[in-house]
Amino acid sequence: MSGGIDFSNVAAPFPYHDLIPSALREPAGVELIPGTVSHLGLIYRSVLGYRPLRLDLHRPQDADGPVPIVVYVHGGSFIGGVPEMGPWTSLPASGIAVAAISYRLAGEAAFPGPVDDIRAGLSWLHRNSRRWGLDRERFGLWGSSAGGFIAAIVALHPLAGPRVDAVVLHYPLTSPRYLLDDALPDGRENARRLESITELFCPDMPSVSDFIESGGAVPSFSIVHGTGDNRVGHSQSQRLHSALVKSGKRSTLDLIPGADHGSSKFNSLDVADEAISHFRKEWGRCIGSGVSVSPRHHIDLEEYG
Hints:
Blueprint: H1 16-19, H2 22-25, E1 36-45, E2 53-60, E3 67-73, E4 97-101, H3 113-127, H4 129-132, E5 134-144, H5 146-156, E6 166-170, H6 179-182, H7 188-201, E7 220-226, H8 235-246, E8 251-256, H9 269-289
Parallel strand pairs: 3-4, 3-5, 5-6, 6-7, 7-8
Antiparallel strand pairs: 1-2, 2-4
Helix pairs in contact: 3-5
């Protein structure tokens, strides 16, 4: 466990499965987005002393057989945000399920708590893939801003769990120690505030690139950032892209001229279609080549906690 009080030695896991009626534990699907069946509030992790962690599962309405799944990790500077945020809403209509996932914020757990949470979410989806009609051979990760930081570390250093074939990052924080160096002139105050948050969250917070050589296969990255980002300078994305390419990994970087942090341009169908194309390309590549799950060398993330 990362941060807080560890109750695991004095109490048994809380039996949510036995205490919650099945109709509420696994609510019937509702159509909130065209072409999508949404199952809201599914508990995927229970850490004693914390609120149960939930995800919303959005499946294509007319799916015939198992469908690929993208786990979306929302942004919010590590101190806010909800799973409903994000540019993922067009994916189910394109035949791709989305798990929009919650995780513990900085006031609830220190780093690497949220990383552990997303890992647990991936494992839960993999274990329950048959129940929810998911293709356990086609997993992707998509994160925005702080969620991009978390998603990237999970992808590069997943420990045990399902293989992630492709990653999409939108305007991600990647190197906390260089936030001020990478800030645009009009974004320095925002960068200072975000730097202060990361110092409280984790005094010696690592860079995403620290995990590139953690062992095993590395998924393909598609990174998108705006050149007008006044919160997380686009050089943050350039740093990660360059480190991936230098290490012989597959990465593309798309800079959107003038786009600010969280700009509506990132919600456009064109940008969503690029993400969909990236996922489909990589799923096809991995299935066609018979790639299997690779064991990873261990890096002790608790040293950052």
